[in-house]
Amino acid sequence: MSVKSRKSKKIVYYVVVVLICFIFLVPMYMAFITSLKQRATINLLTAWKWPSPASSIGYKHAITKLAPYLKNSFVLTITGTVISAFIGAINGYIFSKNKFPGSELLFTLLLFGMFIPYQIILIPLFETLTRLHIAGLGGLILAHVVYGIPIVTMLFRNFYDQIPNSILESGRIDGATYFSVFTKLILPLSLPSFVVVGIWQFTQIWNEFLWAICLTSQKTNPITVGLSQLAGGQAVAWNDSMAGAIISAIPVLIIYIFLGKYFVQGLLAGSVKE
Amino acid sequence: MSNKKNSKEILYSVLILLPSLILVGIFVYGFIGNTIYSSMTDWHGMAENPVKNFIGLKNYKSLFTGIIMSAFRQDLVNTVFYSIFLLAGTLMIGLILAILLDRPVKNEGVYRTIFLYPMALSFIVSGTVWRWLVAPSGGLNAIPTWFRGKQGSFQWTSSQIQILQFNWQNIWKVLAILIMIVFLVLLIHSIMIHNKKGIKTHAIIAGILAIFAFIIAPFLPPALAVKETHGFNLAIIGILIAGIWQYSGYAMALYLAGLRGLSGSIKESAKLDGANEFVYYWKIAIPNLKPITMSAVIIMAHISLKMFDLIYAMAGTDNNFTGHPSIRMYTTTFRANKLALGSAMAVILFIFAALFIIPYMVRSHKERV
Amino acid sequence: MKKSLAVVSIAAMTMAATFAQGATETTKAAPDKMAVEQVMLNDKTPMGDLEIFSWWAGDEGPALEALIKDFEKTYPEVNLTNATVTGGSGVNAKAVLKTRMLNNDPPESFQVHAGQELIGTWVTSNRMLDLTPLFKEEGWMDVFPQDVVDLISTDTGIWSVPVDVHKSNVMWYIPENLKKWGVTVPTTLDEFFATAQKLKAQGITPLSMGQTWTAIENWENVALATLGPDDYTALWHGELAWTDPKVEMVWKNFGKLLEYTNKDASSLSWQQATDMVVAGQAAFNWMGDWAAGYMMTTLKLTPETGFGWANTPGTNGAFQFLADSFGIPKGCSNPDAAIAWLKECGSKSGQDTFNPLKGSISARTDTDLSGYSAYSKSAAKDFAQDKIVGSLQHGVVAPEAFMNDFSPVIEQFMSDRNTKTAVAACAELAESDGLVK
Asked: What per-residue confidence (pLDDT) applies to B73?
């Protein structure tokens, strides 16, 4: 292959990739310019135009209205994610490395829980949580943990399937017990999987709306509820709404920007051949 | 190895799993049971101690044969298209993106982040933005005008165009033909890999379905009293684009991990054998990604159930063309106060999701054991 | 194998158990429809927690906050929580409210459209307190128009206090643009169709429409014009059949109207439809009078010069009304505070504080019009003299079940213009959803 054609191939490649990047960024561009407009200038005809003058009033409104909910969202999401991750890890360990008769069937039955449309269980969920007197953030955390069990178990199990059994065997020969195999051998290797599960659950819990609005009250609303309040009643304030959407997406976006590499690595790890 | 697993350890395993099993048992299976029961009553209204009379399968009957429930039946048809295209689209685009990034390229991290970030957004947020993008009088339709073209005239979510139309009265024939096509594909696959047993089973099933569809079905009574046309609503295209945009990054991450996991020496020896890139990917890499595809299908099926948020944000609750049973269930329960009917819709949605998944899980269960 | 069997039977038993539990819990007798509970008035000073539930936020937020401030001046001992749930024109608020009510955790008071939306959902399920004693004590029977009181009561009581009144049969236009196109404001449906033809020839969309609910509102305007106020009211009382040729005429007129609307209607919010008129792409928009608030406050247009209004064609002399109102659910924790809130909502100072900010008018005939805009003054005049009928889209004349099922019917009509199926479907709905007495 001549140097020239290799170079032109490279150029074509980069053009394609950059074009695709633009396509992926178009919605964010739209959200961004709308968030900088003033209400009166927002309409469909000028949707693509850069705002002039650019105004930060959308962000001012958004920040004042969303600030109280930020703390609730962090408490909800971090607690839910941490608990989810540990349950997933120990369940995944058992289903992967400590199978017993019937465990495969149990796993399949557990997995089924991933396919519940969440509107179905809204009413009985609320009823149950109220009867147990844990409505509010606590109840919401419980709901997210329980309905996350199937997927986090599956993710950890797939990850542990990649860890060769020989490691556990030699550990046992060296005198490790059922539990210390987990704490001393498996856990240290689990970081990539914790990253994957952590990122997944963080995203899902942070962004969830319907349960949040039904199960929490004014003081305990997370940010997704605050966001819908921003949108307003009859007349939607699009600049506030887009500004709020961008602000509420920032924590998760930061995680993806900085931990994205580990996300891919986590999906990759364990599939390296011996 | 098996001697190490004594009954004490099995007890530990069961005890540790017990809380998860009990919780899922109540919150998933228990609630499903509750909803199934509700769907067989006539529960409506907001009374404090509602009177729920057991009426058996009447709600289901009205959903499938009642004249005023034709919009619900279209929702079911929409669900098929939503699910298939979301899955296929996400996986295909994800695979293409992974192949593009599966090489030493500068700033790979930047590209990867750009493809991955949509996943960070909630469907409500992205749905709101995409609503602006697919508004027919602005948004995407304005793009041709940048290149001196005419403003696009596709109505996106307002579109009333419907293709692939069929009459619900012939629903049995249509279903039989669809399933037959699936088995024909499996048959071709079995022939290609010389699986004698597979060839036999698939051919027999396909044959039975063909006989049913073309010979028996015409003599069955019509499934509905009047002619009712259903089909693929082009209006869902806008929503599919939004959904694929959001999750193809996830499929990309999975496939990228899979491609990188393929030992570098395989790639090298393929190159030495004279295979160009295309051949490498087509014949070697992609077949090895099957387990990843299976894992991605499960996750995407899970996500497609959350389409409610996306459709709600993009098209609202009152658009027959983009309708989905989850939205209709929501309005039937919380607007019309018909809780039993809403429960029936929810059960149908659940069975639908289960149908998609059960054959898949049975297959992977068999492969695991 | 044995263990697998055990597992499957456990799963099945769990489901069957909850199934059976559902079956055993429902054998209580039907609530006695005649056992109406009236609100108990007393002289105690209201205090404690008061939770009011609404879907007002954004633009309507300031109005509600002003009302709350006025309330807190009069009742300083009450600790008011303003629980708003926005989004989806109230669907989300309804989901939250109904979830709570089903679990017997009612707020002290909640916003609800006066009329059948309240009655068909909460009164028929016997969840509300009858407010007749309160109405008598406050003298509201003389201050609210009789037509309005009729629409918010049943034989067994009066169920909510209207805090604002909106008019839904208003047609908006830009006077300058009409002059430019050489058309005048039509006053009958036929005049409208003729004007629309003229506009269409010039490439202007005669009527801008938005999502389905705005189409339903336009349908009700056409219905009022075609049937006239008396037959319109008879339709909702089950005295006029949906299959009557007069009602079929409504659908025919509506079909004609649709030919003059924009194709992308279902993707537009109501504000975007208004924007079309302001931008000169469309000539008219038929919308409730919150459009005035949008044009004045957000688009900064002046009434009469910047934008103009008239009754929708064929509805002169009639006022298609809707009202937001508050009632008291049974079993709330602080009924005395709730009563205080209702007194505030129905009071002259309360209504004249709230409505100018919201862009609506007071429900009281003794309202002080000095604080209202030019548009509101004209609306208040109409309210005092015109025949008042109820809006369909905003929950006055039909219960929620009918509203929910009507939506796909009208959508179907908008795509196939088949009058026969629409008429038949509505007749069936009227029967099954409780319109026919």
From this structure: 92
